[in-house]
């Protein structure tokens, strides 16, 4: 049986491990920090040759989770350094050509303002303006995955919908509803209730091909948007997503993995929004969402391996992590952030009085 506060302690250990192994200044510039994309840190990672913009947005989100768990001035200072590091390394402003990247940073910056008092209103405005302009009628609606591309997908539209809903204006909430309704109409499998990845369109706007890959990421962001919209209709949709995840994407309550690279973040993203569903959804599925978070976090912890500065997590939470070989997924910052996110999600439930089921 898990004892009180143990989940928070585990999240704290994960936080210290990731920060000690991955955090580096950006090119020696004072007041900056970013996560090196791999560990052990080679010269390219130390110099942030590969940036992985959206990984940094999730690193910022994790630090904000930690600050809510155990507020400290040092964490607020780190939030400021990360925000400055992202801006310095991005070179050309706050945005890039990928709408999913931009949406994730917008969500993290909005949280930094509202939850930590560290505001970047011009950055949030630039990001939201970019996302608003990304909607077209091609393929029935939705926001592009990338500028000047032919693909629209859930990974871009889901976080954009969450951001629009959290902004809270009538127009932006309407945009959030339109995004979710488009996903539901065009990219949800009627048989399983799960969201597919996305669709390609012809220049005339007609659909050329639907990408029917199923990722935990897609379910997480669609669930998160439905929870934020918080009407009876979207709560019903959220409940369906939880049921579908439980049936098709979890083994004994543990979410399946998607390997290293970008896939290392997918399970963590889903646990983040399952935790929100557990706290805010007034449906029986709220309890099931909590159980999946707890089971996944327990598997993350049980299958860790010990390396310098603390635990190292694997990409498949049901399997023991291994010390990273050259190019192995355990070396990826994304994989470590995914595990940390799952532990923070469980700690969030713990401090809100939701406890794991007795074994």
From TrEMBL:
One Pfam family cited in the UniProt record for this chain: Glyco_hydro_76
Any GO BP: carbohydrate metabolic process
InterPro entries linked to this entry: 6-hairpin_glycosidase_sf (IPR008928), Glyco_hydro_76 (IPR005198), MUG_Protein (IPR053169), O_gly_hydro (IPR014512)
Protein name according to UniProt: Putative alpha-1,6-mannanase (GH76 family)
Native source species: Saccharothrix ecbatanensis
